[in-house]
Design a protein that fits this description.
The protein has a single domain, classed as Exo-inulinase, domain 1 (Jelly Rolls), CATH 2.60.120. The longest helix is centred in the first third of the chain and has 15 residues. The chain is globular, with a radius of gyration of 18 Å. α1 packs antiparallel against α2. It contains 2 helices and 17 strands. With about 280 residues, the protein is mainly beta.
């Protein structure tokens, strides 16, 4: 992975001593601190080439091995936002959100502290735009589970409306690995399957660095993403090939420095709660 070896080596070395005896919340904080710290070391971290993992198999190939199953810690209460976080959803209303690609109100609804996809009514996006960020999202797939593969509890978290971290019921539900929960859709399968059962709250903690472009629109730095699902590392500073898409990998095209966060309507009644963002400096 061109330009990312120092960060990955720093991650591996620095976390060698973060043992299982350390409480989960402390371990996650330590590793997130390492991710945020190594991402600010300058041009050495500026990559344009993705890992060979991406092209080792055709996109959405069922021949790609399934991620190893890891049982995460039990679900807990919503994670409180840090003092410098921008709270996007606190369980009360959708004041910070709107129907995607319009200023119209959304048909998604709020109940009992969560928001829920109103199937087939369209995606939901933030009114505010973001670039580099630390993002916390909690989500739950429907129970009883219905459907198989991609037709079970499907949604997605789109960074800058462009790069999807897949939301899916991946508990005892095989699908193509680059479309499982915790995948960068169509590019990187999750390192492990850390999914909880349907009807149980799950968490994503995401560190994202936007792509950088020269004045003439050529790519200077690819987008990168690190993802923890339920406290378990499932993406480690992955260098993205470009926008995510179904059955294709489009190339980068120049884009704004900041764009909204988008939650996908895939027609399934997926729920979300406790969404907050910490904006990061110009780390690349």
């Amino acid at each position: 992975m061109l330009g990312t070896t120092p960060a990955n080596e720093t991650m591996r070395t620095a976390t060698d001593g973060v043992g299982l005896g350390v409480p989960l919340g402390v371990r996650l904080g330590i590793v997130l601190g390492i991710v945020l710290g190594t991402a600010t070391t300058g041009a050495a971290q500026c990559a344009t080439q993705p890992s060979a993992i991406v092209t080792a198999y055709p996109i959405h190939s069922m021949d790609r091995p399934q991620p190893v199953i890891v049982t995460p810690a039990p679900a807990g209460a919503p994670v409180p936002a840090p003092s410098d976080a921008i709270v996007l959803f606190d369980g009360k209303d959708l004041a910070n959100w709107q129907a995607a690609d319009t200023t119209a109100p959304t048909s998604w609804f709020v109940k009992d502290g969560y928001m829920q996809v109103a199937g087939k009514t369209g995606d939901l996006e933030t009114k505010r735009a973001f670039g580099d960020m630390q993002l916390h999202v909690e989500w739950m797939t429907p129970t009883p589970a219905e459907g198989e593969g991609q037709e079970r509890g499907n949604s997605g978290v789109y960074l800058m409306k462009t790069f999807e971290v897949q939301v899916l019921d991946s508990y005892q539900n095989p699908t193509y690995a680059d479309g499982a929960a915790g995948s960068v859709f169509g590019q990187y399968p999750p390192l492990v399957n850390a999914s909880r059962p349907p009807g149980v709250w799950q968490t994503y903690d995401i560190v994202f660095h936007r792509p950088r472009f020269a004045a003439n629109g050529t790519l200077q730095c690819a987008a990168r993403v690190t993802v923890f699902q339920n406290g378990v590392l499932v993406q480690n500073d992955a260098v993205l090939t470009g926008p995510t898409a179904y059955k294709r990998r489009p190339p980068y095209a120049a884009m704004p420095d900041k764009m909204p966060l988008l939650l996908q309507d895939h027609g399934h009644p997926v729920r979300f709660r406790d969404i907050w963002v910490r904006e990061l400096g110009d780390a690349n």
